[in-house]
Amino acid sequence: GDSVTQMEGPVTLSEEACLTINCTYTATGYPSLFWYVQYPGEGLQLLLKATKADDKGSNKGFEATYRKETTSFHLEKGSVQVSDSAVYFCALNTGNQFYFGTGTSLTVIP
Amino acid sequence: KAGVTQTPRYLIKTRGQQVTLSCSPISGHRSVSWYQQTPGQGLQFLFEYFSETQRNKGNFPGRFSGRQFSNSRSEMNVSTLELGDSALYLCASSLGLAGGRALETQYFGPGTRLLVL
Q: Which end of chain B offers a freer environment for a tag, N or C, measured as fewer CB atoms within 10 Å?
């Protein structure tokens, strides 16, 4: 069935380090892919999205490219900040339902 | 445009009681989905409502139910509460397009944190 698998955490990085959070998916058809971010005590906020193969979503220095050949949508940032500390969720919209990964907790230390 | 709002934000109940949570979607959005988030199980889909009809349902017992009103506001009800129902309940809204549903984005509310004692 349709699903999303993302990198287990937690991830701890120093400020200005590079970030990659892996996400792969299983789906038929032409799904849309998303990254959401959740700060403590809050709901999920849309970070970026891509709706077709080879699309690159970007926001706040984060990027992810929809790779149909590898069924992946890895989240990357070149230089993380303390304020990026949060839980990141990869998600898939098949048109019938949204599927979410288990979340990856990121802590950035000064 | 106002975002998705959920009330109440926090709730404490005891086992056996029932609870009703409310969600107001973004203006113009006709689809409302509910999720349960727990540390152990992550984000689990409960159900989706569109035009006052349940369009999709996850694998939760019948104690979990919902409804949607003509103004797209939605309520979720949990009857006979169990300790394991303690969770953050998230509501998400989307446009609810007639076609191209795979292109839609869900926008989340801040959640209702339910504690069952």
A: N
User: Is B102 in Cβ contact with A32 (below 8 Å)?
Assistant: yes
Whole-number Å distance between alpha carbons of B21 and A50? 32
Report yes or no: B47 and B33 within 8 Å, Cβ to Cβ: yes
Interface test with chain B among A8, A49, A93, by most B beta carbons within 10 Å: A93
Residue B71 has which token pair?
A: 């103004």
**Which residues touch B15 (CB under 8 Å, ≥6 apart)?**
B81, B82, B83, B116, B117
Q: What is the rounded average pLDDT of the residues A83-101?
A: 93
Contact between chains at A94 and B4 (C-beta distance less than 8 A):
no
Which one, of A78, A102, A81, A80, lies nearest residue A91 by Cα?
A102
Chain B neighbors of A42, CB-CB under 8 A: 110-111
Greatest Cα pair distance in chain B: 44
Alpha helices in chain B (DSSP H): none
Each residue's pLDDT tens digit, B38-47: 987 889 999 9
Q: Is A29 left (phi over 0), alpha (psi -120 to 50) or beta?
A: left
The least confident of A27-31, B11-15, B27-31, B32-36 is A27-31
DSSP type of residue B43: E
